[in-house]
Amino acid sequence: MVRIDCHSHIKNKVWDVAGLTPESLMEAADELGIDSFCCSTLTFGMPTPDEFRMCNEVVLKAMREYPGKILGYCFVNPGYQKESLMEIEKRVVEDGMMGVKLYNQYKCTDPVTFPLVSKTIELKVPILQHAGYLTDPAGAAEQPNISNAQDVARLASLFPEAMIIEAHLGGGGDWEWALKNLRRARSVYVDTSGSVIDMGMIEKAVKILGAERLLFATDLSIEEGVGKIIDAKIDGDERRLIFGENMSKILGMRSR
Amino acid sequence: MIIDFNAYIGHWPFRRLPAKSANEVVDLMDGAGVDVAVVSSLNSVLYADPQDGNLEIMDEVKKYGGRFVPLAVLNPRYPGWEDDLEECVDIGFKGIRLYPQYHNYMLTDDDCMKLATKAMKLSLSISIPVRLRDGRGRHWMDSARDVATLEVERLAAKLPNLRIVLLESSNVTNTALIKYGNIFFETSRMTSLIGDEIKNLIQSVGASRLVFGSGMPLKYISPALLKIKLLKESDDIKERILWRNSSDLLRLM
After folding, report:
1. Whether residue B220 has pLDDT greater than 80
2. Chain B interface includes A208 (CB < 8 A)
3. Contact B137 A134 (CB under 8 A)
4. Inter-chain contact A28–B133, Cβ cutoff 8 Å?
5. Can you tell me the distance from the alpha carbon of B1 to that of B228, in angstroms, rounded to the nearest whole number?
6. pLDDT tens-digit profile of B6-15?
7. What domains appear along chain B, each with residue ranges and CATH number?
8. Domain ranges, residue A95
9. Which residues of A touch B221 (CB under 8 A)?
């Protein structure tokens, strides 16, 4: 059974997360049977073009060290629209990155993101959109521009051809609220990552969205990411779709 | 042998749980290879009188022999906890679980200190979940805080012979908690393969102060099991974490 982690990270000189190295991911790959990790690396606040280029260089280096094992998302800040578009073109077309990572600098429904979304449609690559519905006031205040599932559904309605992945069902606050909002946004995929492993989460996601819209992922929670899919009371076909077949299909869109 | 020190029976009012009864939790245990679950009543978290929840789960778990070790939930601010504790000990509860964040007190309040002192005299451990759910997605009526490190540290310092088991603990290696030999740490929220939190904690405090727990049925079980399975430590250390430390704490053998 193929296992593709559609939301992973490696550290960089600014975001220095303990142990989050390509080597550690390779060790995890061996231990947990993960075939590939789709990785980005980030800086926070309002990253400048130099900063997001630095991030993408770090990912590119890992991609070259572990070809086929580490795949790369191109991270950009939509506020630097011209530079972001150039960066996406370069990283996807020339460097072989497999998608675009958008964080919380702007709501995904802010028109500043629209040219980037159009670019991903043209290049046939997915967008991994950081998202969450944070019900804790302190947490919400820390990320005033975080996109929630309603925003993601709205973006999908504006760009029905876009392949949008809502990030971390288990790391974006009220996951039941997210599922309810995404039920009818049928072009949106949801990644299952995050440290939250509420029993029943995956089963409910399958029931509301269908297994063909769920993508296995770990983010920074590797055992949680794998364990929740193993434990979920779903059938073997659904587990295969979630663990890797759905993401394989997304990655295969570029070759069509 | 696996003893899960962090398990529950009962209803959680803010979300549907796939398993609530002892019967359903036993099925989960069998599926995951867990031999014994240390359980308390989830109902007691929000019942005004937690003793009713204690008596409910005792009725359930006694049908399963040694598969369950029941812990009593007590609220030191609610009248009659002394009588309830006595009754719980008499009918077979093996320790205490406290929820200061839901029962609205601090661990070092006088009422709690009285209860903790009594537990210590009875050689009962007290386990305290740092939290029962991730606050980022909390229900609008569930505003409980995470139990703070400092609160636990002060309790441990005041009663050095009281054994405290901190459930759902994480990022403790660089805190003052590790100085207190009477604090034990449950591992379900710690990193293992990436981040090495469990390994680092073992290096700091030794393997005798870690206990395996999963948080079931609030949480899936496999993530917690994977963390111990993938730990690069000897079988002896893994055995300690998976059951021997819990067995010692609860005086099961």
Report:
1. yes
2. no
3. yes
4. no
5. 13
6. 999 999 999 9
7. 3-250 (3.20.20.140)
8. 4-255
9. 227, 231
